[in-house]
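Progress note, sequence design subtask.
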């Protein structure tokens, strides 16, 4: 047993927020990931995803069966037209839930790590929903400016995102090495064993069942989440992805 989900990924079950934003759309918080790719598998409802990348602004419809994913640096914002629900697949064994995401807050917040930490955090208990909605609205303010600014504005946002996450990269590398790198090494060793005509890890085959993190959905960046407590993942913090 490796202790992590196949391929070194993590998954969550997301119900996208239906809170109406200033532009009339019901949406989650626009953000990007600095080191990890993230994928969406649409399992119910309908909506869209708005993106900002090297290709500029784009909006794609989402209906059940659609699959779309983003490489690091692509800003994405989910739009909920009707009960949009997704299976979110995240690379790097849950690294996106360890602070890999940066929300598109206004520049004065992005330029102040302390202000960013305050803006991104959610209180425990009562008031959490209101704080998540305020966080979404603040991110949308920055997203609107970012979208109007084109490629130059996106490049500056990338620079600010790097400054914010740089202090965490040593911790992320340690997590990556003990999960994704270790899983890759395990597969390499198994292929070597198979090539030699040996069963390798097959003789220690096992089945793993992972418990939910909580029976209730938590407040993520894009909506309400069901997550699972992966055996090798670090504790989840207030910057949970999706």
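Output:
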């Amino acid at each position: 047993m490796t202790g992590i989900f196949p391929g070194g990924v993590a998954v969550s079950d997301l119900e996208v927020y239906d809170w109406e934003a200033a532009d009339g759309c019901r949406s989650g918080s626009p953000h990007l990931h600095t080191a990890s790719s993230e994928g969406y598998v649409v399992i119910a409802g309908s909506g869209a995803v708005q993106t900002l990348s090297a290709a500029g602004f784009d909006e794609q419809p989402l209906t059940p069966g659609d699959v779309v994913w983003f490489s690091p640096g692509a800003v994405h914002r989910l739009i909920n037209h009707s009960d949009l629900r997704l299976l979110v697949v995240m690379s790097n064994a849950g690294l996106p839930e360890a602070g890999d995401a940066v929300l598109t807050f206004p520049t004065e917040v992005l330029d102040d790590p302390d202000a960013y930490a305050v803006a991104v955090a959610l209180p425990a208990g009562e008031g959490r929903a209101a704080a998540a909605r305020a966080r979404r609205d603040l991110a949308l303010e920055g997203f609107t400016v970012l979208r109007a600014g084109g490629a130059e504005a996106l490049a500056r946002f990338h620079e600010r995102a790097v400054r914010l996450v740089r202090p965490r990269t040593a911790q992320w590398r340690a997590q990556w090495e003990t999960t994704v790198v270790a899983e890759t090494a395990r597969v390499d060793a198994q292929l070597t064993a198979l090539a030699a005509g040996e069963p390798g890890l097959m003789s220690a085959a096992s089945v793993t069942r992972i418990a939910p993190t909580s029976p209730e959905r938590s407040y993520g960046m894009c909506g309400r989440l069901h997550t699972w407590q992966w055996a090798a993942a670090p504790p989840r913090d207030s910057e949970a992805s999706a």
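The chain has one domain: 6-226. Work on this subtask will continue into the next period as scheduled.
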